Amino acid sequence: MSNTEKEHKNIPEHVAVIMDGNGRWAKERGQDRVYGHHAGVLSVREVVNTAGAIGVKYLTLYAFSTENWNRPKAEVDALMELLVATIRKEVDELHKNNVRVHVIGDFDALPPVCQKEMQEAMDMTAANTGLNLILALSYSAKWEILRATRQIAEAVKNGSLSADEITDEVFHSHLCTSRFPDPELMIRTSGETRISNFLLYQLAYAELYFTPTLWPDFGKDQFLAAISDYQNRERRFGMTSEQIQPSK
Ligand code: IPE
Ligand code: IPE
Ligand code: MG
C-alpha cells in the first residue's frame, strides 16, 4: 500500500481535542495568558482546515470547561469575548467550507451575547454537509452524565421508559453528543496526561494521544502526526490480535 493510500485509509471519523497550554505558551514569552488564547485561535483554524481536508467528519474541540468558570474573572471575560469575536470573524469562511457548527455543554450558562453568536453560527451552517465542528463550551462530562441520568430517571418515573430498557443506546441518546458517533481518537496538547472531565462516557474506547506541544504551537503537521500515530495502532476492543488480523 502506498503512503498516500494509507493516509486516506483508516482516518478517524471523530477526533476530540483538549486544546491545552495557551497560558504556558504566553508565559514563556513574558506575556499575559490571554495573549496565548489569541494565538491558540490560529491553531484552531489550522486544525479545522486540516481535519476537513483529510476527511474527518466530526471534530470536537474542548474550548471551555465547567471548571474554567473558576479562573480569574478577567481571564473568563477575555475568553468569552474571544469566543464571540472569533466565531463572528470565522463563520463565513466556515460556511463557505461546508462546515457545520455545533455546541455541546451548558449553553444557558454562557453570556447572552455568546449564546446569540453561537446560535447564529449553528443556524447559518445547519444544512452544511462537510466537517461537523463541535465546540465544547461550559462543558464537563460529569455535568452531562448527571443531566442524562436525571432525564432518564424522569422518564422511568413518568412511565415512558422501564429500567431494563436503559441500554447504551438509550443512555447515549440523552448525552449532548447524541447526534455524533463516539471519538476514535482523543488528542491532548501541553504534556498533561489527564482527561479533565472531557467526554468521559464517549471516550470509553478512544485511542488517547498526548503531546508535549503547547496548543498555540500545534498545527497541520502536529495534527497529521497524531492521525498517523492513530493509524499505526491496533484497536482490539477486548479481543486478541489474531482475531483482528487472522493472517498474523
Ligand atoms: C487551554 O489553555 C485553554 C483553556 C483552558 C481555555 P490553558 O489556559 O489551560 O493554558 P495552561 O494550561 O494554563 O498553559
Ligand atoms: C482543560 O484544560 C479544558 C480545556 C482545554 C478547555 P484545563 O487547563 O482547564 O485543565 P486542567 O485544569 O489542567 O485539568
Ligand atoms: Mg490548561
TrEMBL record:
Keywords: Magnesium, Metal-binding, Transferase. The active site is at residues 20, 68. Belongs to the UPP synthase family. It comes from the Bacteria. The keyword Ribonucleoprotein does not apply. Binds 2 magnesium ions per subunit. Mg(2+) binds at residues 20, 207. Homodimer. Its cofactor is Mg(2+). Catalyzes the condensation of isopentenyl diphosphate (IPP) with allylic pyrophosphates generating different type of terpenoids. The keyword Phosphoprotein does not apply. This is Isoprenyl transferase. It is an enzyme of class 2 (transferase). Substrate binds at residues 21-25, 33, 37, 65-67, 69, 71, 188, 194-196. Its EC number is 2.5.1.-. One of its GO terms (molecular function) is transferase activity. The lineage of its organism: Bacteria, Pseudomonadati, Bacteroidota, Chitinophagia, Chitinophagales. It holds the Pfam family Prenyltransf. PANTHER family: DEHYDRODOLICHYL DIPHOSPHATE SYNTHASE 2, DEHYDRODOLICHYL DIPHOSPHATE SYNTHASE FAMILY MEMBER.
